[in-house]
Design a protein that fits this description.
By secondary structure, this protein is α/β, with parallel strands linked by helices. The chain has six helices and five strands, in the order E-H-E-H-E-H-E-H-E-H-H. The longest helix has 13 residues.
């Protein structure tokens, strides 16, 4: 599985940790930046290219990290084909994939601990979409909104 990852300065330290964790778990990782810690950078510059790569199937799933995770979540959900959420606990990390076919996980680098982040990432990546008829029906309604 190929995983894309991106972060601004607020998520940069956690991105470093998650990138090492993913490679240790034998995932292929594509880093969309930031590539160095710069307090003046802006999360859209990194998370939007990641979101486009997720939508275009250049990566299988994505992980976007900013200080709180809120800005990254708002930004990436503007890209058609991206289904992202800011996650703080395990149930939503797998249920978001299983029921809603979530393809991009958002984390808050300043509010999510390193070990919890690893656990959330693992849960997210191990989950699969159930494909149940009711979930497909709901996703079709969401996809119609992308044409609005």
């Amino acid at each position: 599985m190929k995983i894309g990852i991106a972060a601004d300065h607020g998520g940069f330290p956690l991105k470093q940790i998650i990138t090492l964790f993913l490679t240790s778990q034998n995932y292929e990782v594509k880093d969309f930046g930031a590539y160095n810690l710069d307090d003046a950078d802006d999360y859209p510059d990194f998370v939007i290219p990641l979101a486009k790569a997720v939508a275009d199937n250049e990566v299988d799933r994505g992980i976007a990290i900013c200080g709180s995770g809120v800005g990254a979540s708002i930004a990436v959900n503007k890209i058609a084909g991206v289904r992202a959420a800011l996650i703080h606990e395990n149930f939503s990390a797998h249920q978001g994939v299983e029921d809603d076919n979530m393809n991009l996980l958002c984390l808050g680098g300043r509010v999510t601990g390193n070990e919890m982040a690893k656990e959330l990432v693992t849960t997210f990546l191990n989950a699969t979409f159930t494909g149940a008829a009711r979930h497909k029906r709901r996703l079709e309604k969401v996809q119609q909104l992308e044409r609005y």
